[in-house]
Amino acid sequence: MSTQRYKCLVQYDGTNYVGYQIQINGKSVQEEIEKALKKMMKGQTIKITASGRTDSGVHALGQVIHFDLPISIKPESLRLAVNSMLPADISIKQVEKVVDDFHARYSAKGKKYIYRVDLNRFADPFKRFYTLHHPYRMNEDNLALALSKLEGEHDFTSFCSTRTDKENLVRTVYVAKVERDEANNELVFTFIGNGFLYNMIRIFVGTCLQIADGLKKPEEIDRLLEVKDRNAAGPTASGKGLYLVDVYYDESFKENL
Amino acid sequence: MSTQRYKCLVQYDGTNYVGYQIQINGKSVQEEIEKALKKMMKGQTIKITASGRTDSGVHALGQVIHFDLPISIKPESLRLAVNSMLPADISIKQVEKVVDDFHARYSAKGKKYIYRVDLNRFADPFKRFYTLHHPYRMNEDNLALALSKLEGEHDFTSFCSTRTDKENLVRTVYVAKVERDEANNELVFTFIGNGFLYNMIRIFVGTCLQIADGLKKPEEIDRLLEVKDRNAAGPTASGKGLYLVDVYYDESFKENL
């Protein structure tokens, strides 16, 4: 039977989920989307594939998934149908018909994440699920230097959860930077790379905040890239500050960095 | 026994509360703050007084409360102590010692509220508790005209819940306007007045959106101010888009409108 492949851009508030991927210990984003598709398909199971997992509490502004349907349906109609069956914390932002060899994970050329830090002395009640609260005085020059050292092609073993199932831990980070959002009194990290390992950005942030706080020197990054030991790096920062912003399927994203 | 009066600026995310005021049917903001003060005072009950109630789901960026303590404590120390005992969705933003005749409600000269409307075709998952979703094409000229008709001193009986306990329903609205927040694809209403009746702003918004949608003409506002009948006005818009932004204790706020 011939099928049509669809690519969807998905936003979700990860607060109430165990993560993107189906797990036995709680509600997942994947499960909710598959449930919505199954309802739309009158009981037929549709498997979806995402660009990658996101952890518990992690948000997405631009997660990408693909799936095949035995029917051809207008993208906007599909979007309307699925959104009407999804819970309010997940929303399909865009639907496209794509060729059968498009693959949300394998076709991805790069990803962009941001990580938001609430700098208010007392945590902002409206940001409690959307930022990490870190109200300490920081050395921003050391922070910028540390981040610049993460850019480039490296073996990121020190910045990868030991629970990874990957063998090759070499990745290229194109952008690792931080900006102050004065209006919101936030620090916003941006990371763009050809791929990120399990917990990689959260360990980047946990380690860089230690450097910003003066607990470690920026040169610690050089040593961590050298020693390839997760236990040598800083803590894994909370998932709630992390957002998957973009998944790139065309190498041209590198031209605008 | 001599006491010291304290004035506090309070922020809260109203999502998980039945409203500001203590009620038998659920958790209130007042109850949480009084519990925190009681803990700080080693079991002594401290009654707090706010500038006014906010309904279920309504948020505050600048609610004001006062209370008396039998001790004198530095404002920043008090802030730290209370915040450390409050849940994450309530935060004391500022503490001041005030004179004994300052009263959070009776001394108030005016208030400012905003109301946020999410214009996205599909509701933004991150705004589901913080905006009203209203994705319809609107006549913004008619909306602006309707709002301007609300400004001034009027008997607002048509815009007040019949459950009010007030007798005098005349209030002065200094500002009733709406602006587009293009970056967030929101419509943001601002209302500033010398006082607002029970549900008044939510009925303003419910009625004005009907006018914006073309269900009623802007001149309907003139008629509503005339007939003094709650049933003639539009619906009470959801509390979740509403924010108490400022309470003014000095008439000088009128100079900067």
Automatic annotation (TrEMBL), chains A, B:
Designated gene of the protein: truA_1
**Which domain of life does the protein's organism represent?**
Bacteria
Please tell me the species this chain comes from: Jeotgalibaca dankookensis
- Protein EC: 5.4.99.12
Q: SUPFAM superfamilies in the record, alphabetically?
A: Pseudouridine synthase
Function description:
Formation of pseudouridine at positions 38, 39 and 40 in the anticodon stem and loop of transfer RNAs.
Keyword Isomerase carried by entry = yes
Which molecular function terms from Gene Ontology are attached?
A: RNA binding; tRNA pseudouridine(38-40) synthase activity
Q: How does it assemble?
A: Homodimer.
Positions annotated as active site in the UniProt record: 55 (nucleophile)
The name this protein goes by in its record: tRNA pseudouridine synthase A
PANTHER family linked to this entry: PSEUDOURIDYLATE SYNTHASE, TRNA PSEUDOURIDINE SYNTHASE-LIKE 1
Q: Name one Pfam family in it.
A: PseudoU_synth_1
Q: What keywords is this UniProt entry annotated with?
A: Isomerase, tRNA processing
The entry's family comment says:
Belongs to the tRNA pseudouridine synthase TruA family.
Q: Name one GO biological process term.
A: tRNA pseudouridine synthesis
Q: Where is the Pseudouridine synthase I TruA alpha/beta domain?
A: 10-107, 146-250
User: Which NCBIfam families does this chain map to?
Assistant: hisT_truA
* Membrane-crossing residue ranges in chain numbering: none
What HAMAP family does the database record attribute to this sequence? TruA
The reply to whether tRNA processing figures as a keyword in the UniProt entry is yes
**Where does this protein hold substrate?**
113
The record lists the catalysed reaction(s) as: uridine(38/39/40) in tRNA = pseudouridine(38/39/40) in tRNA
